[in-house]
Amino acid sequence: FEYLALSGKTVFITAGPTREPLDPVRFISNHSSGKMGYALAQAAIDAGARVKLISGPVNLTAPERVECIQVETAEEMLTASLEGINSCDLFIGAAAVADYRPVAVAEHKIKKGNEEIMELRLVKNPDIIASVAALSQRPFTVGFAAETHDLLSYARSKLERKKLDLIIANDVSVPGIGFNSDDNRVTLVSASGEVPLPQTSKRLLARQLIEHIAQHFNQQMAA
Ligand code: PMT
């Protein structure tokens, strides 16, 4: 970075999947590897920020100088995200949070029965980024939208519904980008327009994203 665009700022980043337990040995989760969120944490450090990374279970080592809080469930991710939020200037939600969790967690391993079909009852999880954006004293809030179709219209509706400042639209139907790949390709969507960022490594894309996000953030600060 030519200058430290986030110097002195505190950035919270969520990354990875959440795991929602069914019983002591099983859970509901998704294919997020944490690569996108960890790359953003590195890029934010390089831009001069103090970074707290709130991470679901992944096989990655947190970048140096990042405070990394490990969580499993969406509820734990929410608690860790809200802790110290008053000191947070910029919040980026790159985690793939499970929208639902099992209504009850069985105390013992669920046994195979005779029935051919087993039904799971799920209850909605809290929306972490919407909770952050709803705070009266809120950080500049940036979400992702992982979509398999109608990418930009769904992204725009999430931007509005969750009251975000920016959203990063990520087509997760294309092989080689999105979940668990080393590369990604996204479109940065704001109230005023769209910036497509071509396919590259998550490491380089994260640097471009942090640069764009810092620009919007600093503009809002100056306004
Ligand atoms: O981790 P990788 O393997 O590198 O993959 C990167 C990625 C594809 C996971 C990432 O680029 C990405 O798109 N992350 C968002 C994944 C997602 O589940 O998006 P969503 O459209 O369901 O959610 C929209 C936004 O709300 C996201 O910022 C999400 O973090 C947030 N959210 C969603 C549900 C919930 N209960 N709480 C939330 O905060």
TrEMBL record:
Q: Which reaction does it catalyse?
A: N-[(R)-4-phosphopantothenoyl]-L-cysteine + H(+) = (R)-4'-phosphopantetheine + CO2; (R)-4'-phosphopantothenate + L-cysteine + CTP = N-[(R)-4-phosphopantothenoyl]-L-cysteine + CMP + diphosphate + H(+)
List the Gene Ontology MF annotations in alphabetical order. Answer: FMN binding; metal ion binding; phosphopantothenate--cysteine ligase activity; phosphopantothenoylcysteine decarboxylase activity
Q: Which cofactor does it need?
A: FMN; Mg(2+)
Gene Ontology biological process: coenzyme A biosynthetic process; pantothenate catabolic process
Kindly tell me the pathway this chain contributes to: Cofactor biosynthesis; coenzyme A biosynthesis; CoA from (R)-pantothenate: step 3/5; Cofactor biosynthesis; coenzyme A biosynthesis; CoA from (R)-pantothenate: step 2/5
Copy out the cofactor comment: Binds 1 FMN per subunit.
Q: Name one GO cellular component term.
A: phosphopantothenoylcysteine decarboxylase complex
Task: Specify which residues bind CTP according to the UniProt entry for this protein.
Answer: 99, 109, 126-129, 144, 158, 162
> EC number(s) per UniProt?
4.1.1.36, 6.3.2.5
Domain called DNA/pantothenate metabolism flavoprotein C-terminal: residue spans? 6-215
Q: List the residue ranges of the region (Phosphopantothenate--cysteine ligase).
A: 11-223
Domain of life of the organism encoding this protein: Bacteria
Enumerate the UniProt keywords alphabetically: Decarboxylase, Flavoprotein, FMN, Ligase, Lyase, Magnesium, Metal-binding, Multifunctional enzyme
Tell me the protein family, please.
In the N-terminal section; belongs to the HFCD (homo-oligomeric flavin containing Cys decarboxylase) superfamily.
Q: What does this protein do?
A: Catalyzes two steps in the biosynthesis of coenzyme A. In the first step cysteine is conjugated to 4'-phosphopantothenate to form 4-phosphopantothenoylcysteine, in the latter compound is decarboxylated to form 4'-phosphopantotheine. Catalyzes two sequential steps in the biosynthesis of coenzyme A. In the first step cysteine is conjugated to 4'-phosphopantothenate to form 4-phosphopantothenoylcysteine. In the second step the latter compound is decarboxylated to form 4'-phosphopantotheine.
Q: What is this protein called?
A: Coenzyme A biosynthesis bifunctional protein CoaBC
Q: From what organism does this protein derive?
A: Nitrincola iocasae
Gene, per the UniProt record: coaBC
Whole sequence portion shown: 181 to 403 of 409
